[in-house]
Structure formats: structure tokens, C-alpha cells
Write a structure and sequence with these properties.
two-stranded antiparallel sheet, 163 residues
């Protein structure tokens, strides 16, 4: 069985080789025939010539008219930001693009509820801090009393030891 497979494979390779050699020989034959006929290499296309209408050049002073579309934007711009966030309840009618505002003019008014809440929280935190401070001062005073009592006990024990 191996003999048959190898024989068929060898025959196939020989046929492919002979076919390729035939193609190469035909290509060489056509090239030699073309050279013998004087054809040789084909030349590139000839230069193309176009016919155009011409007119004499006459100098003229022309003023161009340019139409453009777009948006004119200021080179300087200002961004307003508040130190705290909140809901805007009122703003100045002069607060528009290109509007003029006077010095000291109120531009926007925020809802005061958020600020009032923050103030109340700060007052509460301050009161808590003062209470903690008073408690700490009391603890320091008690600790001082404990130190003095310990010193008295030490003195008594030293005198007892000396006796």
C-alpha cells in the first residue's frame, strides 16, 4: 500500500514539474519572438497636448467682497464662582453677555438655607469644643489633686520608713 501511495505522489510531482517547465519555455519563446519582431519593450504614452482658449491679460483694480459666517467672541472673558455652592434665587438683569455691571452691584443671590445650616453646625461644633475643653481642664485639675495626694502619701511613707 505504501508503494502505491509513494508512486502516485512521485507521479504527481513529476507532472507538476513538467507543467511548470512547459509554462517557462512558452514564456521564453514569446519573449524571443517579440524581440525578433522588433517590438521589444513598449514605449510609454506620448505627451498629451491640450488645446485651450486664451485671452489677453488686462490689469483691473478689483475690490473683493467677502461674506463670512461665524460668531464674534470676546478675547477677555470672566468666570464667576461662589465660595460656597447653592441654589440661585435671584440674579441681576445686567448679568448677560456684554452687559455692564457697577462696582458693588449684587450679581447673584444664593438660597441662604445652606449657609445658615453651615453656620448653625459651626456654632454647635464650637459649643461642643468648649465643653470638651472645660472637661479637659477639670481632668487636669483632678490629676493635679491626685499628684499632690500621691506626694503627701510618699512623704508619709518616707517618714514611716525613717522611724
Amino acid at each position: 500500500m505504501r508503494f502505491m501511495t509513494r508512486t502516485l505522489l512521485g507521479t504527481l510531482l513529476i507532472c507538476l514539474t513538467l507543467g511548470l517547465l512547459t509554462l517557462a519555455a512558452g514564456s521564453l519563446y514569446r519573449a524571443a519572438q517579440s524581440e525578433a519582431e522588433g517590438g521589444g519593450r513598449e514605449r510609454g504614452a506620448r505627451e498629451r497636448v491640450f488645446a485651450v482658449n486664451t485671452a489677453p491679460l488686462v490689469p483691473v483694480r478689483a475690490t473683493p467682497s467677502i461674506t463670512t459666517y461665524g460668531e464674534v467672541v470676546s478675547a477677555k472673558s470672566l468666570q464667576l464662582r461662589t465660595e460656597i455652592g447653592g441654589r440661585i434665587v435671584d440674579f441681576s438683569p445686567n448679568l448677560v453677555a456684554g452687559g455692564r455691571v457697577a462696582e458693588g452691584e449684587v450679581l447673584i443671590r444664593l438660597d441662604p438655607a445652606r449657609v445658615e445650616t453651615a453656620l448653625d453646625l459651626a456654632v454647635t461644633e464650637e459649643a461642643e469644643a468648649e465643653a470638651v475643653l472645660a472637661e479637659a481642664r477639670g481632668a487636669v485639675a483632678l490629676a493635679g489633686d491626685d499628684v499632690r495626694a500621691a506626694e503627701v502619701q510618699r512623704d508619709l511613707r518616707e517618714t514611716a520608713l525613717a522611724r
